[in-house]
Specification:
By secondary structure, the chain is α/β, with parallel strands linked by helices. It has eleven helices and ten strands.
Length: 262
Amino acid sequence: MNILNKIISDKKREVALKKSIIPVSQLEASVLFNGKTNSMAKLLRNSLSGIIAEHKRRSPSKSVINNNHSVEDVVNGYQNAGVSGISILTDAKYFGGSLDDLVLAKASSKIPLLRKEFVIDEYQLLEAKAYGADAILLIAAVLTREEIKYLSAFAQSLALEVLLEVHNLEELEKSIMPSLDMIGVNNRNLKTFEVSLDYSKKLANHIPNNFVKVSESGISTVEAVIELKKYGYQGFLMGEHFMKTENPGDQASQFIRKVMKR
């Protein structure tokens, strides 16, 4: 069983357990549930850098990345750096995250927040809304077209933006629909964890321009961002590059300044 299948198998059990103890009515009663959405798609369209920085403690491929900083410090640093979005990993078992990270990020920042999670159930979208997310991630590799259609429409009904992640043309073609806001190309093969920017380059022309194009993973240089901009990408999700340093916010600031100068 590859790592992605294992994560999804565990996620199904986790969501079932959560649903059994925290009713939907409790999520809907959250003070954040009816909050105004801060549009990540709009900010990316108007941004000169397009950097989406991530809060990420660990990963299956890299083990521990950074356990030294509080969510508040990281998120504040990213906001001061001028990022266009902040991705908060909420998976506990494989990435060391939690929904508490999301709500702390909400309290610490005015930047649009993406709940980065392995979404398989509408319950997780209600959680995202209740804990302060502005956008959610759907991964085409683990969802059918019907599931993407239902979950993306449900997200929009909650005023959550949708970033749909694809890895190849087959996933992209099954997924394109009006209920998406952003389409991301993951440069990391989720089954082998091999990384190549060629994935983003090859799919760029197949993504309609009415969606914000986002390149995800494996981006570590200013040159890569500049190169991908030529292919129409407006968002660049950077997971480990900043988090693996002593000061993620400072590193993001230096990186963004260099991008803006180009």
